[in-house]
């Protein structure tokens, strides 16, 4: 990630626009040429992304849009996991649910889960992890089935960025995008 952030808008050109176009293409918002020119098609793709991701839909890629793109990319890299799953994504899930408990303690109730999620990080999606996921899904008003798919990962991404300004997300590479 760059140490400084460049706001991108129609008329911008260069490597940062190329990266933007590539990321929007990865997220299936951009079908045009990856040419480093922020033209009408790139702007329309940005606006479409902004509308679908609750960001001001002005066609300008500022901190909030960049942070939303990073969250969306992070979510797109997650696998659907459920009871019986093992590995890195399960560890990420368990860590995020533990962080949600800490946020509730530090900031008052953000996720209304009496008793908290109360799980440990072991990389194994067992009955306790499933119960914690169901509590989280209920608190987020998602389908509470214990399966962690795209919508649940998207809600979980809010734990990563809770109480952070978008500049922190962008400059400190919060989502481990490489």
UniProtKB/TrEMBL annotation:
Coiled coil: none annotated. Residues 14-69, 87-156 form the Peptidoglycan binding-like domain. Pfam families: PG_binding_1. PANTHER family: L,D-TRANSPEPTIDASE HI_1667-RELATED, L,D-TRANSPEPTIDASE YCBB-RELATED. This is Peptidoglycan-binding protein. It comes from Iningainema tapete BLCC-T55.
């Amino acid at each position: 990630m760059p140490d400084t952030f460049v706001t991108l808008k129609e008329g911008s050109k260069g490597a940062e626009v190329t990266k933007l176009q590539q990321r929007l293409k990865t997220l299936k918002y951009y079908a045009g040429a990856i040419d480093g020119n922020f033209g009408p098609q790139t702007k329309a793709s940005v606006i479409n992304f902004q509308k679908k991701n609750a960001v001001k839909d002005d066609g300008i890629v500022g901190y909030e849009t960049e942070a939303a793109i990073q969250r969306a990319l992070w979510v797109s890299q997650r696998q659907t996991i459920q009871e019986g799953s093992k590995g890195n994504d399960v560890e990420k899930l368990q860590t995020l649910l533990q962080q949600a408990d800490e946020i509730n303690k530090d900031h008052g109730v953000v996720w209304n889960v009496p008793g908290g999620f109360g799980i440990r990080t072991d990389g194994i999606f067992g009955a306790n992890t499933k119960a914690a996921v169901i509590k989280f899904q209920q608190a987020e008003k998602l389908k509470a089935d214990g399966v962690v798919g795209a919508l649940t990962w998207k809600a979980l991404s809010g734990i990563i960025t809770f109480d952070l300004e978008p500049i922190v997300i962008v400059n400190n590479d919060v989502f481990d995008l490489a």
